Every structure is written in C-alpha cells, then in structure tokens.
TrEMBL record:
Organism: Luteolibacter arcticus
Annotated protein name in UniProt: Potassium-transporting ATPase subunit C
Lineage, opening ranks: Bacteria, Pseudomonadati, Verrucomicrobiota, Verrucomicrobiia, Verrucomicrobiales
Length: 130
C-alpha cells in the first residue's frame, strides 16, 4: 500500500479508538434506566385512583423490578371500596375474591410468609374484568 493510505488508516484507527475510550470513561454519563422498572412505575402511577387497589402502607416501596406487593388479606379489605367506586353490583364481590386468589402467588423466600399479590397485575386484571 502507499504511504498516504497507511497514514490515513492509522489516523482513523487511532481516532476511532480515542473516541471509544473517551465515551467509555466519561463520568457525566448516566446509566440507562431499566425499562421494566420504569414501565411498572408508570403503570402504578396510572392506577392510583380510588377505583383501584392500593398498598396498605402509603410509603411502600417497590422491589428491584418496580413491583409493589401486598398481602391478599390487605387486598380483601379494599374490595368494598373498589366495588363502590367502580359502581359494580354485589355479584362482583365473588368475582373480585376469585381474581385476588388467581393473582396471588407464594413468596419466593417461603421463610418470610404466605402469599402475596402483585398490585399492578391485580389492577390490570381488574380493568379487564367485565
């Protein structure tokens, strides 16, 4: 190869590696947010009205995936309010109880306790319920 071509290729290689090095070491870059966590937070924000189930503790914090969990008995206490706010008939009480049972799942640690309910999943199922 001719010398000018070799010089140009070397300059491009060094310049490209310098750009990669500079962008990798910049301290002002923030990591990208976890899309699943952001989506869960957005979904829970939309489900904040009185016609939805809510955590029993307003200071409840979501887990590392953005999911807020609640005990099934704490959900059952809210059935009357949800029926009243959504203007559902009394036959919906049984449907809601069955829905809570369906979305309940055992805690992965088994040591901590019994079942738990994914609050966002329950509220999405509530919206889908006819």
């Amino acid at each position: 190869m001719k010398r000018p071509v070799l010089v140009l290729m070397a300059a491009l290689l060094l310049g490209g590696s310098g750009i990669v090095w500079w962008t990798a070491l910049r301290e002002d870059t923030e990591p990208l947010p976890d899309e699943k966590r952001v989506a869960m937070i957005e979904l829970e924000d939309k489900q904040s009205g009185p016609g939805y189930f809510h955590p029993d503790d307003p200071a409840a914090t979501p887990d590392e995936q953005g999911v807020t969990w609640i005990a099934p008995d704490k959900v059952a206490v809210q059935i009357d309010r949800v029926i009243r706010e959504r203007k559902l008939d009394e036959s919906s009480r049984e449907k809601l109880a069955k829905l809570i049972e369906e979305v309940s799942e055992p805690h992965p640690s088994r040591v901590i306790g019994g079942n738990r309910v994914n609050l966002a999943r329950l509220n999405v199922a509530l919206d889908a319920m006819k």
